[in-house]
Amino acid sequence: MKRITIALSLTMASLVSMAQINVFSGNNVGIGAGLTSSLSSLSINTTGVDYASLCLAPATTSPLKTRGLLVNNITSTTQNFVGIGTVFSNTNGSQSVLRGIWGYTCNPTAQAVGQAYGVIGTAGNCTTGYNFGVLGNIQGTNGGAAIYGYVGSSQPCTSINRDTIQYAGYFVGKVSIIGSLWVNGIQITSSDQKLKKNIAVLDSSDRIFMLTPKKYFYKTRKELISSNAITLAKSDTAKTTATIENETPDYTKKQHYGFIAQDLQKIYPDLVYTSGDGTLGVDYQGLIPIIIAQLKVMKQSQDQMQKQMDAKDARIEALEQALAKLTGKK
Q: Where are the beta strands (DSSP E) in 178-238?
């Protein structure tokens, strides 16, 4: 028995020596060469951080292995599997920030190469309608959003406008959609007076009659790429010769009616915007008050003409009555 105990002790000592496992203050464990401390409960190839129970650093061999935690199981078809699962509950009412999964990928300065993704979700080939790359759900009774996206290095507001509504999605910044946007409901645009300044009555202008509505078809993705209407990243240049997924979406098969942005820009430049790649876009909703203002002018003109016609009719009727009296006709 003593021999077995000694053998096990020597084996453990050898494993600890080879793996370089160290236990530091607070019973924090560090695995890796040259570690002198561990701020996390368990840290691998790094000293960790005090706000993370588990902290892993990428390997330094080439090519770099940058997977922090990977769970792989493809043998069972009857169980629910979670690659990375976290459960936090803040019941003491403190000001702690709870993060289920936090993805942060950012260079300290802007680079001309490489790609950065905070969180990547890929899913497919399960029951139709139940494949979600990213699934967000909000619970409880307080306001918030299942998916919240904002542009910038700092959160633009301490809450979602201190709103008590629960949103499926909430975005602060420009949102770009390639394809069709389906709205099963109504589209609402913020128009509260408290959001506006320099408010003035819109003066109608006959410029609206200078607009020339057009009918047209949208180019397919293949046509856009071949005509350089959209710019591809260097890593995507192979798509110019390869088959393009969904290269002919439904909206490119139908005829559309509207305005050409370059034409509208000459008449109403405030209704035309430019995207990051130089593509022009139109604020069609902005045309509505202009049209209404012109309709009001036309209505006022029509009312004035109607008053003049009514006055003429009254004069004609008075003359007819006077003539009838002179001629003795009733």
A: 214-216
